[in-house]
Structure formats: C-alpha cells, structure tokens
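agent> fetching stored inputs for the glutamic acid docking request
agent> found them:
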Amino acid sequence: MPNPHPIQRAIDDAFQAFGQLPGGANADYIPFLAQVPDKLSALAVVCTDGSRYWAGDVHYRFAIESISKICTLALALEDWGHDIVQEKIGADATGLPFNSIMALELHAGKPLSPLVNAGSAEERWQRILAIQQQLGTADIALSEELNASEQATNAHNRAIAWLLHAAGYMYCDPMEACDVYTRQCSTLLDTLALATIGATLASGGVHPVSGQRVLQAGNTPRILADMTMEGLYDSSGDWAYTVGLPAKSGVGGGMLAVVPGVMGIAAFAPPLDVFGNSVRGQKMVAAVADTLGYNLYRSPASAAP
Ligand code: GLU
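agent> prediction call returned; pasting tokens
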C-alpha cells in the first residue's frame, strides 16, 4: 500500500488520538443541540488548491452557530468596507463572554446582522445564507427544526438586541435583527463544508474548488484578525498562545482554524468546554496544525517546540 499523504497521516493520527476523548458536554440552552449524539467526531482539511483530506463523521451536518459570524462579518466588510466596520463594531476583544450584557460595545460575539441593513429582513437573511454557501458549499441550508428551537429560547439575545438599540448601535428593528441573527446560526453544514470556508479565507477570498473570488483580498486578513482575538470566546488568548492560528468555534461543536495561504482545518464534536469550544475539536485541530508545523508566530527557521 502506498504511504498516505502527510496531511492524511496527520489527520489520521489526530483523529485516533483525540477523536473519542472524554470530557465536556453538549450545549443545552438550545434544546436541539442537547440531543445531538455526543460521540460524533469529524476532522477535515481543505487546501487552497481544492485538495481534501478527512476522517470520521465528516458528512454529518451540524449547527453552524457562532461560526456564522465570520460569514456575516465578511458580508459586512464587502458591503461597507473595513473602516466603517471598525468604527461601528470595533475590533477589540471585550474579555467577556460572547453574550455578555456587560460588554455593551459591539464585538464579534454580538449580532453583526444589523450592519447588513439594505432591504427587508428576508432579503438580509437570503444574502447571509448566500455568503455562507459561497464561502463554503451550496448545500449549507437552514434547519427549520433548529431555527424553531433557537427562536423559542433566545430571550437573552433579544435582550441584547434591545440594549444595543437603546445604546444607538442597532441600525434596524432590533427584533428583526435578532430573528435574522438566529436564522444565520441555524444553518447546518458538514465538516468538509466548514473546512472549505476556511480554505476560502486562507486563499484571500478565492473559493478553493470553483476558483471564484468571493471576497476582496483586503478583507480576509481582517476576518482572520477578528478570529484570532475573539474566535474561541474567553479562551482565544490561550489558543493563540498554544496553537497560533486564527480560529472560530460554535456551540454546535464546530471548530475551524485557518492557515493563511495554505488550508482550512475543521473539526466537529458536540461536547463543549466551559467556554463553549468543542473539547475534541480543539485537540484534533491543534494536533494537525502542530504535526504539519503551522503556527503563525513561529519563525520558519525555528524548530518546534
Ligand atoms: N445561536 C447561539 C447564540 O447566540 C450561538 C452561540 C455560539 O455558537 O457561540 O446563543
């Protein structure tokens, strides 16, 4: 048998080491997420040249949740430009949980959809869904069941929307914004689609399979910078310190890291740590990055560790 490709080997090793690690618990404040089988595990790499490698339950479709924020941020940057996004949202981590009432200044953990304020809520939603599909794959789609589960339990987010409105940071009807935000969190995608989103960001906005430019090249470094600072909730700093790659997780168990110019590394496993990050997802993605020698802060000449 021929030797597997080094990327496939890195994936197989990481999956074998961490794919069934115990620990963590499914998110349960959204009822839909509590019932996702917690043994599911998947790991995938999509490179900027379109090559793909994977292991595990890679075709299982899970909830995108907060990972949707990088797609909506991309849309906001395309529509408005980075100066306005920085002015209206800012780019500094709050150092507080993603849904913190105390963190009243806008940050990536709050609804970005208010910025995409052309047209009706339905038009905004359709554009947000379209950017998820353009960055990833055409089969990313809304789950009516998940959306119903989230809309019925999002009182906290509705409160945030009203507080933003009161503070002058809401640019359309707050309940409409919260509705669209909740829908953007309620799409399903598989781990290969998530890694494809990473590859599109890694290549400066060019889709790895279609070769089409989805984003302006100048916007992707800003998305990656936001991911570095806030992508893993309150443990973003620890992740940067230990892994050194921009990443984003969601409470659906998805986890994405980007190696600029090279690849997206994605994982899925439902049990979360106390911060809301997939326990096994973090381990698997970190192991692949480490085996392949990717860490943005490591100088090319210095050897690990
Ligand atoms: N829809 C979820 C919420 O806003 C997403 C949370 C997340 O993945 O961080 O509560």
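agent> quick read of the result: The pocket of glutamic acid is lined by residues 65-66, 98-99, 150, 157, 185, 250-251, 276 (CB under 6 Å).
agent> awaiting further instructions
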